[in-house]
Amino acid sequence: MALPLIFFVIGIGVDQRCSVAILVLLFLTYFVLFISRKLALVNLKMLCYSSLIWVSFFLLGRACMLVYGDAFEMGELKPVYLAKVEVVCTDVPRFTSRGAWLTAPATIGDTTFDLLLSMDSLQAARLEKGDTLYLRGAAIWPLLLKGKEVSAWEKYLLRQGVNYKSALQKSRSWTLRKNKSWYYGAYNFAHQKIVRSALSSKSKALLLSLLIGDRGYIDKKTKEDYAVLGVSHILSVSGLHVGIVYFVVAWLLSLLFYKRSSIAVFLVLLVIWFYCWMVGFSPPVLRSALMFSLFVLASVVGRGASLWHSTCWSAFVILLLQPQCLYDIGFQLSYGAMLGIVFVMPVFSSWVKVKGLLWKSIVDLLLLSVAVQLTLLPFLVYYFEYVSLYFLLANIVIVPAVALLMYLGIVFLLASGRALQFLIFLLDQLVCFMDWVCGLLRDAPYTVISLVLPDLIFWICYTLVLIFVIYFKYSRLNWFLYLALFFFVFAILSI
């Protein structure tokens, strides 16, 4: 599935130079295997059949790009108009120092489009997920204005399909219809219980983000601290959080049903996908939900689910439904991390042998962090232009603390009375501990190293070095090691 997926991604719209680099990599791989007699090319029929599959996936990617092409365009200037607009709040508002905003589907007559809606904090506090806004005399503007430079934020919105913007103004007439749906009610119950509790403001913000995906309450300083330490991924719902929900649900159901009971499987899948709907179908959440679903279904039929194949299939399904996700930073970081887990982590594990369950768990967490950081290095430098030096210490302390915070948070949503008061105390103390650790590491010398963005040639060589080292590990062919050394020297010379 890996090669068809690569051709599918190329078809969606990978840069021409990157396409050439990928094709050269594939050629070198097959050339080395051929001259080492590890790959027999005598079966011409099978080779033609494989080539036909690859070309079909490439054409499928091109077709998806054409169908969803408007998601990649920067948009054209269209007239401003006033109209009666119906806006359905499929998400909760995000709060900033200047007010609040949300993106939501809007309807004018028979036309539906995605809208960026700005408002003040008091207006936003009235809104819940599933509410419907009726705007009268609303002014709708195109997201991009002629002659204005396009920001990274606007590019992100455009790739999510948001092309227009508006604002709730006190001088304009608008009405609010509260939602009465049970599925929105579950989200709003959790949201309101956390917001109206006696938890500290930081505890509320973290629980809202970790449990139901609402990052609107996290202050700027907290985001910066976690980003500097290389653990900002824990602030948004991702594979870690979906995995925790899965293991909690699977453990509870194992007490009631047999492991392979069809009822238990159905309930596990139902809870996973309902949780994903609650927190929003972001690429990391979709990836985790698809991979856990494949794992559950494979266990039912008595077959083991390959982590690599599950990763490839989940990426293919996401890109088939939403090809614009290819340009989403969450998608890139999520699958970049999976590459490190699947390929680089086993290499490190074979080099480092530790006895004892506790020490092995700590070492595995450290090796996993290093493997993920190595594969994500090009993305981190490209998007943030710095690398954290204390990401190992931060991950070994903050990640287990976040897992414990989520477990306690799930119990918090179900608790009441004195048990609730005790959980509030525990949650606040745990968040204080996390803040203390972050502050200690943030104030340490040389927390981050700022890097100048290298040339594309350097990153191509860097990627090739990692890939050929992995090939050498699994094939034991010295040709791959020689190629890795060659590209390593070439990468140094290109700086």
Can you walk through the features of this model?
With 495 residues, this protein is α+β, with helices and mostly antiparallel strands. It is 62% helix and 12% strand. It has 4 domains: 2-67, no CATH class; 81-180, Nucleic acid-binding proteins (OB fold (Dihydrolipoamide Acetyltransferase, E2P), Beta Barrel); 194-450, no CATH class; 456-494, no CATH class. It has 18 helices and 9 strands. A hairpin with a 2-residue loop joins strand 3 and strand 4. The model is unreliable at 70-77 (pLDDT under 50).
Record the SSE blueprint.
Layout: H1 2-13, H2 16-35, H3 44-67, E1 81-88, E2 94-96, E3 99-108, E4 111-119, H4 121-125, E5 132-142, H5 152-159, E6 162-167, E7 173-177, H6 182-195, H7 201-212, H8 220-228, H9 239-254, H10 262-279, H11 283-300, H12 307-321, H13 329-351, H14 357-384, E8 386-388, H15 391-414, H16 417-442, E9 448-450, H17 456-475, H18 478-494
Parallel strand pairs: 4-6
Antiparallel strand pairs: 1-3, 1-5, 2-3, 3-4, 5-6, 5-7, 8-9
